[in-house]
Amino acid sequence: WQKLKSGLARTSSSLTTGITAIFTKRKLDGATLDELEDILIQADLGLPTAMKITEALRRDRFDKEISDEEVRAVLAHEVEKVLLPVAKPLAIDTSLKPHVILVVGVNGTGKTTTIGKLAQMLGREGRKVTLCAGDTFRAAAIDQLRIWGSRTGASVIAREPGADAAGLAFDALKAAKADGSDVLVIDTAGRLQNKAELMAELEKIVRVIKKQDLSAPHDVLLTLDATTGQNALNQVEIFGKVAGVTGLVMTKLDGTARGGILVAIAEKFRLPVHFIGVGEGADDLEPFEASDFAKAIAG
Ligand code: GDP
């Protein structure tokens, strides 16, 4: 909670400073509501949520004096209502050996780091974890995953850079089955520059996994970088079509002023949000919690 609260301090301070400026010694009327709506939109919360907040205020408090604390309480309440239905823990099915998680997302959004953090979390829960270095385009991504493996005790299945990612995923699932792993987490390349290639590669990975286990992958997680703001909305759209995303991880919520984007994404796509990233360290992955997030945003 402390990390989340300090991580979102910039998002909440831009909101609360604006709210205080609008409502100090002023009534809640059409003009102040318009100004408030602008601030909420600038904070990336999205138009539908911004309207819900201003409508709630208009309905209950129109033409009355209102303190900024009261406005922030309504903000927290309305944001929590949007987030509650999507805040869902990632459920690992222990009867599957392994539970297969495919991790997709644009390069730099935090895929590999999130996989490392997940390996840490699952390892602590006593699960046997295998990681597959499926971003075969970048030597650095393969090295990074190996480091996470040795740090967390997870096995890492990797090949030399340039190897066929689908072939590697096939081998990784075989190996994870053979050694009784509880969870297999597969990294992937995230080159949005060539969408057709990206699509073909992700489809091929899913196809070869299904050859061994028709129910897999059991989760397709999309990592989104909170600092990119509105861009994240396009990424959900694209990867949703290409990879059949089942859940989201929002990274880099430490120190961004654009944390409100998570609310816009929740409102627009209604996809489960499983985790948030609040730093670069192994322990900086937290299960997503609607009420904490709403409170941290509202300051
Ligand atoms: P990938 O290309 O999607 O695999 O992204 P990486 O996992 O390599 O991450 C890109 C950069 O973002 C690295 O420098 C990470 O340390 C950093 N990063 C990832 N997640 C977080 C986070 O939650 N907070 C912060 N501050 N940095 C993060």
Automatic annotation (TrEMBL):
Superkingdom as given in the UniProt entry: Bacteria
UniProtKB keywords: Cell membrane, Cytoplasm, GTP-binding, Hydrolase, Membrane, Nucleotide-binding, Receptor
Domain SRP54-type proteins GTP-binding, residue spans: 272-285
Membrane topology: Peripheral membrane protein
Chief localization: membrane
Gene Ontology biological-process annotations: SRP-dependent cotranslational protein targeting to membrane
GO cellular component: cytoplasm; plasma membrane
Cellular compartments annotated: Cell inner membrane; Cell membrane; Cytoplasm
Keyword 4Fe-4S in record: no
GO molecular function, one term: GTP binding
Entry keyword annotation includes Iron: no
Binding site for GTP: 105-112, 187-191, 251-254
Catalytic activity annotation: GTP + H2O = GDP + phosphate + H(+)
EC number(s) on file: 3.6.5.4
Top EC class for this record: hydrolase
Quaternary structure, from the entry: Part of the signal recognition particle protein translocation system, which is composed of SRP and FtsY. SRP is a ribonucleoprotein composed of Ffh and a 4.5S RNA molecule.
Family membership noted in the UniProt record: Belongs to the GTP-binding SRP family. FtsY subfamily.
Stated role: Involved in targeting and insertion of nascent membrane proteins into the cytoplasmic membrane. Acts as a receptor for the complex formed by the signal recognition particle (SRP) and the ribosome-nascent chain (RNC). Interaction with SRP-RNC leads to the transfer of the RNC complex to the Sec translocase for insertion into the membrane, the hydrolysis of GTP by both Ffh and FtsY, and the dissociation of the SRP-FtsY complex into the individual components.
Protein name per Swiss-Prot or TrEMBL: Signal recognition particle receptor FtsY
